[in-house]
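Task 17 of the worksheet. Students: predict the tertiary structure of the chain below and write it out as structure tokens. Keep your answer in the requested format; marks are given for formatting as well as content.
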Amino acid sequence: MAEVNKEKQHISLNICSEKIDIYVKSDLEALYRKAEKLIEATYGKYDQMFRGRRSERFIAATALLEIGVMYEMEHAQKETDTYDRLLERLTSEIDEALK
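Model answer:
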């Protein structure tokens, strides 16, 4: 257990007015910080649009939905990129074989 803690470090994140204390691998800290900024920006956008008209839960759910859609779009794009690279390679190999 002590070995695991040596690899990880304690960080504090502020998400939706909540302080979140977690342990993360040192090489992942920057990703957690970027995620914190993305969440805060997305939540802030919906908080400005809906404050006083919708619940905080609705605002958080809407922000999570947007982030989830962004993730899925990015994931789908990466899958397409992989497929496109494979298709290009196969096409090139077929062209070479036909010469």
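Marker's comment: The beta strands are 8-15, 18-25. The two ends are 61 Å apart (CA to CA).
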